[in-house]
Amino acid sequence: MMITETERLYAREYSESDLGKLTKICSDADVMRYIGHGGVLSPDQVQKMLNHYIKNYRENGYGMYAVINKTTGELTGQCGLNFIKSLNEVEIAYLFEKESWGKGHATEISKEILKFGFIRIGLTKIIALAYPENIASIKVINKIGLKFVKPIHIWERDLNYYSSETTPDQ
Predict the structure, then answer these.
(1) Domains in the chain, please, with CATH?
(2) Checking CA distances to 104, which of 96, 138, 141, 153 falls within 20 to 30 Å?
(3) Predicted model pTM
(4) 3-class state of residue 25 by DSSP
(5) Phi-psi group of 149: left, alpha or beta (phi > 0 → left; psi -120 to 50 → alpha; rest → beta)
(6) How many angstroms separate the Cα of 58 from the Cα of each of 9, 61, 62, 63, 132?
(7) Which of 30, 28, 75, 31 is nearest to 53 (CA)?
(8) Strand-by-strand arrangement of the 2-5 sheet
């Protein structure tokens, strides 16, 4: 099911057919440097992650979505909303294959995912977490309107915590 789209991209629910390309993306050390504990994922780990995403659609009504490049029709990354149980908050998160870096894809689809979260899901607050040294991600977070709140220690890491509590421009 398609969730949202932009001029160049669209976000849809993941399916089992995405496993191969997602595994390839998650096996790139540069892509995964600031994701999770900062390491590549095995095919089994990617399968478990994909199963979790699909389960979240049923249980929460939202989750992480496959981002498709309209020109190529290929999976280029992911962007979506992730419930963080330990914080009792919803974060926006994304990752893209290197071929998409520097093209504005993360900013473009993240703006639409924020609207989806606020307008269609009815969230009143969405956060983002980023490694302090992940300058590219921090630029995206700032461009989509989230504001730095504080450093936070979570998942055995020191991260920056950003927040938006107002609906973005529609």
Answers:
(1) 2-123 (3.40.630.30)
(2) 153
(3) 0.93
(4) helix
(5) alpha
(6) 24, 6, 8, 9, 33
(7) 75
(8) 2-5, 9-12, 64-69, 75-84, 89-96, 126-130, 157-164, 147-154
